[in-house]
Each structure stands twice: as structure tokens, then as C-alpha cells.
Design a protein that fits this description.
Blueprint (H helix, E strand, L loop, with lengths): L6 E4 L5 H12 L3 E6 L2 H13 L4 E5 L5 H14 L5 E4 L12 H29 L2 E6 L12 H21 L4 E6 L7 H7 L4 H13 L5 H14 L3 E2 L4 H11 L1 H16 L2
């Protein structure tokens, strides 16, 4: 995919992976709409891009709200051109354990339905012109699981599944899809889980940090943009994740037994 001159929306781009992807795209000539619930952070990301010579505008936006998604699309068209790329990056860790009904509503809204709602708005336009690109930022939890947090594990599995469906259904219409599945990334989300008082939350943080090295958001952004340029679906910023995923698929029962042992080990500390 050629990036120079394209227009992208990046949700959750006030910090972390979203900010890094927005910056990386801008460095390649993409004009970026930065969306984030934290308006101050959104504008800070856009200002940093402009200071470096890129083009960006910011908007306070809830990535799971249809009206706010429409607002980002409208802003893109008004300031630049119609949207070419949609990066569904915004995500939440959600409640530990099984969570409540309200907890499940929140995490499914942000980690899954936000992707679906965005796709409903952008895909028909992309179909009509024969091009477009959707990036779903999921997680290694969508390929493996997330100890200590059912909502996160399930919603990220669903995000991967939805991205797969998009790629299969609309690939022949010229629409590209990439699904980003990192392990540990040094972001405000991981920092928040590290500092929680909840034992299931701490278990989740420990499992992430001990499974592989914790990389930077910039590393994830580089891997993501490389995949977009190559029109590659699966983005694995941690190379070791592929072996883990193959191990799981090779013998599911053995993998579950191994995860139970791993969980017992982490709980012992």
C-alpha cells in the first residue's frame, strides 16, 4: 500500500501505541486525525506531529460511539480528504476476573464494537472506490489468552475474529486489513495494570511481562506500518509469539495444562 498523501484516523492516539502509529504514519506522508477520550493528549499528539513537519488534527472522541466516529470521519474530509485508513487502536483492560454485566458492556464496546461500528461507516465507501485499509489493534491475548481477565481475553479474541472476517469478506474489493497482536508493550495501559491492588490484575501484568520482553510502542508502530506496506494481515511485533500460537494449536489440552502451571507459578510469588 502506498501511504504518502493518504488520510488516516487513529483512535486512542493520545498516548501509547496509538500515538506511535499516528506519528509513524505522519512520517510517511499520511495526514492524520488523532482521536482520543483525553482531549489534551489528543491535541498534544497532533501538535507533536505538526512540529515535526507532518499534518494532523485532533478531536476528543469516544472510539466506541457512533456519533464520535462520524465526527472523526467528517473532520478528516473537512480538513484533508475522505478517509483511506482507519486504525482501531483504542482499548481498555477492563475488570479483572469474570467481571459484572456492566464491566462486560464496557470492554466489548471499546475492544470489539468500536471496530464493528467504524467498519460499518468506512467499508461501504471503500467498496465503492475499490480501496481502503483497516487496522485492528488487538493483542496476543486474542491468539493465546489473558490470565486474570476474562473480558480482555474474550474481547481480543473477538477483535481478531472480526478482523479475519473483514479481510476475507472485502479483500477482493481492494480493502486491506491488518491485525496487530503484541505481547507486552510499555504503555499507560500496562503501567495501570502493574499498579493495581487487585491480585488478578497483578497476575495479568506478571504474565505479560514474564512471557517475553516488553517492547516500546514505537516498535509496534514500525511493525504495523511495515505490514500495511506489504498488505500483510497478521502483525506479530514479538517474534516468539508465533511459536507460542503454534504450540497452542498443536495440542490444545497440553497448552491449557501448561497455562494452568504457569498461572500457579505466578500466584506463588
Amino acid at each position: 500500500m502506498e501511504l504518502d498523501g493518504k488520510v488516516a484516523i487513529v483512535t486512542g492516539a493520545g498516548s501509547g501505541i496509538g500515538a506511535a502509529i499516528a506519528d509513524g504514519l505522519a512520517q510517511r506522508g499520511v495526514r492524520v486525525v488523532v482521536g482520543d477520550l483525553d482531549e489534551q493528549n489528543a491535541h498534544a499528539t497532533a501538535e507533536a506531529i505538526r512540529s515535526a513537519g507532518g499534518q494532523a488534527v485532533a478531536l476528543r472522541a469516544d472510539a466506541a460511539d457512533v456519533v464520535d466516529i462520524e465526527g472523526m470521519i467528517t473532520l478528516a474530509s473537512r480538513e484533508f480528504d475522505p478517509v483511506d485508513i482507519y486504525v482501531a487502536n483504542a482499548g481498555v483492560m477492563g475488570a479483572p476476573g469474570l467481571g459484572s454485566e456492566a464491566d462486560w458492556d464496557v470492554i466489548l464496546d471499546v475492544n470489539l464494537r468500536a471496530h464493528i461500528r467504524a467498519a460499518r461507516l468506512v467499508v461501504p465507501h471503500w467498496q465503492s472506490r475499490g480501496s481502503g485499509y483497516f487496522v485492528a489493534v488487538a493483542s496476543a491475548a486474542g491468539l493465546l489468552t489473558q490470565l486474570g481477565a476474562a473480558g480482555y481475553a474474550v474481547s481480543k479474541h473477538a477483535a481478531v475474529g472480526f478482523a479475519e472476517w473483514l479481510a476475507i469478506t472485502y479483500g477482493d474489493d481492494g480493502i486491506g486489513v491488518s491485525c496487530v497482536c503484541p505481547l507486552g508493550v510499555e504503555t499507560p495501559l500496562l503501567q495501570a495494570v502493574r499498579s493495581t491492588d487487585d491480585p488478578d490484575g497483578r497476575l495479568g501484568a506478571s504474565s505479560v511481562e514474564q512471557s517475553a520482553s516488553v517492547i516500546s510502542a514505537a516498535d509496534v508502530a514500525t511493525a504495523t506500518i511495515d505490514a500495511m506496506l506489504a498488505d500483510r494481515f497478521m502483525v506479530l511485533p514479538h517474534a516468539e509469539l508465533l511459536g507460542m500460537y503454534r504450540h497452542k494449536g498443536g495440542d490444545y489440552d497440553r497448552w491449557i495444562s501448561g497455562m494452568r502451571r504457569y498461572q500457579r507459578t505466578l500466584r506463588a510469588f
